[in-house]
Amino acid sequence: MYSILLLLPFLAFYCFYLSDAKTKKTTLDSISAFLCKHPVRAKTLGYFLVFVSWIVFANLQGLTSGSFALVVYLMGLGSLFVLLKPYSLLNWKRIGLLSLLLGIFELSISFFHQTS
After folding, report:
1. For residue 10, is pLDDT > 70?
2. What values do phi and psi take at 20, rounded to 5?
3. Which of 12, 41, 66, 104 has a Cα-to-Cα distance from 51 of 20 to 30 A?
């Protein structure tokens, strides 16, 4: 499921965003506040999520195309994140709800495609 796979680099970018000292952080929930207070852990988690997503994309699409796809996904998700975060449109609840809805949509498409 690509919706879960795209969630990994998005969360990695979120961890990198929270670990940066130059960004202006407004209302933070408990997870974001913890990652802001511990930037080394946030960067480690971000690198781990990027590495896991690279392994999965390279396994699914091949080494070269998976690597290039990950770079494209990171650029696209990063620009989307930088665009929406200052408006406080992104938090853990909305990201979770969006990924749940996209996962259900993706499962329903695959289910209806198999039955027809």
Report:
1. yes
2. -80, 130
3. 104
